Amino acid sequence: MIKVHLGDITRLNVDVIVNAANARLLGGGGVDGAIHRAAGPGLLDACRNIGGCPVGEVRATSAFSIPVKRIYHTVGPVWRGGRLGEPELLSSCYRHCLALARRESMRSIAFPAISCGVYDYPPSLAVEIAVEQVQQHLEKDGEPQSIIFCCFDAEMAELYHAQLDAYVRR
User: Fold this and answer.
1) At 12, which CATH number?
2) Does the active-site annotation cover 141?
């Protein structure tokens, strides 16, 4: 089941929240900053111990003060026109997170709009990739059972709703 939620990802009742992190995993603005603030200082220490994450990959930590089981930190690509592998790297973020959730037997996961903030990925293109990767994963593996696209504004939520409707009509 796929849902779209408008609100704060740190307040969702899921097993895993995905952090749209930077490569150093040391916090930042947007979703990354909100997750670090909500989790508390233990998250920063855990991320320092990991030592970073390459673009398109995922690293996992406990959730500290956030009432979920895990935080998956993934680093999306910076948009540079789409000819430097950005679509493949963004797809990889979703694939790696979903595969890890399945391996860890997580039943629910919430994604932010990866790369759509300061990384300037065009929202409509990013949403198309997100929905396609999630749908393909569910068709193949069926787990996790619940996937939420958590949006920071109504405009982004509408993009997800429209793309999910378009995918179903294929």
Assistant:
1) 3.40.220.10
2) no
- List CB contacts of 83: < 8 A, sequence separation 6 or more: none
pLDDT tens-digit series, residues 130-148: 999 999 999 998 889 999 9
Q: DSSP secondary-structure letter at 7?
A: S
Residue 167 pLDDT exceeds 90: no
Tokens 């949006």 map to which residue?
A: 151
Q: Which domain holds residue 164?
A: 2-169
How many folded domains does the chain comprise? 1
Q: Report whether 102 contacts 67 (CB < 8 A).
A: no
Q: What is the pLDDT of residue 143?
A: 84
CA 126 to chain centroid = 11
Candidate list 8, 15, 32, 141, residue with the active-site label: 32
